[in-house]
Amino acid sequence: MIAIFNGVGFSFMAAYFCDLLWLKMGIRSVFGRPFSLYIRQQNKKWTLEPFGFQDNILKSIVSRAADTVFGKDHDFHSIKNYDDFRLKVPIRDYETLKPYINRAVDGENDILWPGQPAYFCKTSGTTSGTKYIPLTKESIPNHFNSARNALFLYLLETGNYRILDGKLIFLSGSPVLEEKNGIKIGRLSGIVNHHIPAWLRSNQMPSYETNSIDDWEQKVDQIVAETIDKDMRLISGIPPWVQMYFDRLKAKSGKKIKDLFPNFSLFMYGGVNFEPYRVRLFESIGTEIDSIETYPASEGFIAYQDTQTDEGLLLLLDSGIFFEFIPADEYFLDNPTRLNIEEVETGINYVLIINSNAGLWGYSIGDTIKFVSKNPYRIVVTGRIIHFISAFGEHVITEEVEKAMKITMENHHEVELIEFTVAPNVTPEEGLPHHEWYIEFANPPDNWNDFIKTLDQTLCDSNSYYNDLITGNILSQLKIVEVRRNTFINYMKSIGKLGGQNKVPRLSNDRKIAEKLQTYRKT
Residue 292 and which of 109, 154, 191, 501 are 20 to 30 A apart at CA? Predict the structure, then answer.
């Protein structure tokens, strides 16, 4: 801890600790503020010089990997700058990088990064089946330290250090790991669980045994049993699965969450847009509380919310990842424009590309983002490049449907949403083609016609192509298919993706999900 206090006067520290001890704050609270100050100081260094930090990361990771199989295949020794790099290294998705990854999974050394990966993060892809994303000893700190830093910057801004003295819960995947060719394999959240430090682990819930339960519903019930009488102060997880946890707490106790956990004051989340879930989640809690949005991915921790006052997530430009950006409307071209951080602009939809000390090169994780600030660089996640509807050339994206739903719910305060997904209906039994919204409501609209009209008009306002198709009578107004309670839980269970880090796709350009949801429609 000594390094954390560099530059902090001894007399100030002594007085500070005396004050805190007089207030009878716990030891974690005592050390919280100086550590928060240290993190802010470190962040300030790279946010003031983002180009230099990114350039140094590129040079460092290229140099480290120059003698790997991938480095030799792409002549890393000749790369001197970003222009050289983008000429030598093509953009790849998992399928096109898979031949290299398979060799590493088979136990070969020096394939994408020197030596062997420390872990493989096991995740499921929509087209690639099971994916194995390498994590190296150099890349692991990116995953844990980023989440930690997001928390401590929040504590510094709000002074809410007492969170650290209560119980913290992380709704995550199983920490039980497999092993193949000497390399441990598991879900990202399970792997990260093994790197939680002792000072935090003593307050962490649920127990290791409960966290290791594979069946998600059984696991949630056991978490409820373990936590219902504890002093929970921070809860973290993907919103729909946290909602499931809250629903079961209420079913067991008959109480609002604030009455069960009076000191619960911070919700940390990532993986999905919080807005569609906000109203119902806070209704379950019984009050609004602070929240921190994070942007973790198996391939790297990308960004986090560093303030409660400004829009967007701070893009982590110092954490072992060199970022590239492709304008989304060029992504499927043969030679799309590739930009570094110095070349981006605000308000443009970009596909995110990463190059990292985990051995990922020109790697498209499939997410789209927009910059909302360049000083510092803050982003919002707008969706997935493969999740869109363009059955008639409208190219409606996730950001647009979520914005439409948010605005519509603001005009229909009675509505409480559980989950939704959207698909095209190209050949309806009658009438014009249209977009079909499959929605599970906790509380439906009082006036269905007004709700649908507002939703459709808001989408027209966001997407001029969709508006043209509506006004040109090529598409009819969207239709809502209301589905029964627990539809999306049952659907995710049916495809083996209930809980953990799994998410319901917001958009599909085909009817695969829609056809399965037809059996759940409300009569």
Answer: 191
